[in-house]
Design goal:
Blueprint (H helix, E strand, L loop, with lengths): L3 E6 L7 H6 L8 H15 L4 E5 L14 E2 L2 E4 L2 E3 L2 E2 L5 H15 L4 H4 L1 E5 L4 H11 L5 E7 L13 H18 L4 E4 L2 H7 L4 E4 L20 E6 L8 H9 L6 E6 L5 H10 L3 E3 L5 H9 L3 E4 L6 H5 L4 H7 L4 E3 L7 H4 L10 H10 L7 H7 L3 H17 L2
Parallel strand pairs: 1-2, 1-7, 2-5, 7-8, 8-9, 9-10, 11-12, 11-14, 12-13, 14-15
Antiparallel strand pairs: 3-6, 4-5
Helix pairs in contact: 2-16, 3-5, 8-14, 12-15
Length: 395
């Protein structure tokens, strides 16, 4: 009999997207939230016995959120959202305590026969909670999904307190994460830099194959270029704006959804260029509707930094799965199959990106859907289950 699973994450059902957006600072389309929800769906499709304990990520009080405390929410009989104190000075400790407390409350008899814990984010409270649950029980194994390596993620905040707290958090995470039983890395470069001798797999992303269910293409007269995600300089949102400004057709629209340090620039440009539509933060359902109804999807992340070797933008696969053409740069972490179905600009200039955007119109390639399905939630969970089996063989 297969061991029971416990997922520790920041996920919540899509029905709660609007609720968390209103709490300020919750990015419902973040890679960690999407990955976590896909893991949950994959476990369900494979008929595994599992529970989920989640601490939703919102902006910290009092800097980026007015929410002092998050309330506990029971999403269903196996999916629990814990409440915690959101004050930036104690939020991490509060999350850890709440996760451990919730685990003790729910049916945890699976730990006697073996428990597989999947931590879907390199976040100190989640990893710490997993170890507190494990304690000295050798029947409990922990696999950490490394969506990012914290030391390579730049902070956009200029607040010195936030910078110091991030530095402390990175140091704590680096020490504790070395002690888990296994890893899921997004790229071979990430695996090499991490340098662990623990069991691991490289799996760039996980696709929720239900995201476009029930969404029909709406009739429209415009050609829509769509990007949903982090609108920051680090991810080259300003580069995208420059590229779009070089396209002259009045029939084109650039539809943007998300948050980041380029938002003010977007709002300013949209005053003079009415073709730019900024929608703010949107729910997953809205994001998927926009992606399915796009004429061309775009992702301006460049491939000329060390960070891009370690990352894999999960939206790449969900964009391709929509069936709509995708303009983006090939990153070092891309498998060959994906490199063959994207539309890549000739060089790293706004002019070249603009040319590719215009070229991509009506360039649908059905093979891109086949490539995306290689990362289906059912397939990836089978890989993770196999990883746990190999870990247990080694004690």
């Amino acid at each position: 009999m297969s061991e029971k699973y416990l997922v520790i994450c920041n996920a919540h059902p899509k029905e709660y997207d609007d609720y968390y957006i209103k709490l300020s600072g919750c990015d419902t389309t973040s890679s960690s939230a999407i990955y976590s929800n896909s893991v949950i769906r994959g476990l369900s499709l494979n008929n595994f016995d599992f529970d989920v304990i989640s601490a939703a990520s919102v902006g910290h009080y009092p800097f980026t959120s007015k929410t002092k405390k998050l309330k506990e929410i029971k999403y269903d009989n196996h999916f629990f959202g814990v409440g915690y104190n959101n004050n930036i000075l104690i939020s991490q400790l509060s999350k850890t305590k709440s996760i451990v407390k919730k685990y003790k409350e729910i049916d945890n008899s699976g730990s006697q026969n073996g428990l597989n814990i999947i931590v879907t984010d390199v976040h100190y409270p989640f990893i710490k909670a997993a170890f507190k649950i494990k304690k000295k029980n050798k029947r409990i194994k922990i696999v950490l999904v490394c969506l990012d390596l914290p030391q390579y993620v730049k902070s956009s905040s200029k607040n010195p307190i936030l910078k110091i707290l991030k530095m402390i958090s990175v140091n704590r995470v680096n020490k504790l994460s070395k002690k888990v039983d296994g890893y899921v890395f997004l790229s071979k470069y990430m695996e090499e830099i991490y340098g662990s001798d623990k069991k691991s797999i490289v799996s760039p992303c996980i696709l929720d194959t239900s995201i476009y269910d029930g969404i029909q293409k709406a009739s429209k007269e415009t050609i829509d270029f769509v990007y949903c995600g982090v609108l920051s300089k680090q991810y080259n949102a300003d580069f995208l704006l420059k590229a779009f400004s070089m396209l002259n057709s009045d029939n084109y629209r650039l539809i943007l959804a998300g948050k980041g340090d380029v938002v003010e620039q977007i709002k300013e440009m949209s005053k003079s260029d009415k073709r730019i539509n900024y929608l703010g933060e949107v729910s997953r359902e809205k994001a998927y509707f926009l992606q399915k109804n796009a004429d061309v999807l775009v992702n301006p992340r460049l491939s000329n930094s060390e960070y891009t070797k370690l990352s894999f933008p999960s939206k790449t696969v969900s964009y391709l799965y929509s069936g709509n053409p995708l303009v983006c740069y090939s990153l070092p972490s891309f498998p060959d199959g994906l490199k063959n179905v994207i539309i890549e600009p000739k060089d790293i200039t706004p002019e070249s990106f603009a040319e590719a955007m215009e070229f991509a119109i009506d360039k649908t390639n059905l093979k891109q859907i086949e490539e995306a399905l290689k990362f289906s939630e059912k397939n990836v969970i089978k890989q993770i289950d196999k990883l746990f089996s190999e870990i247990r063989k080694n004690g």
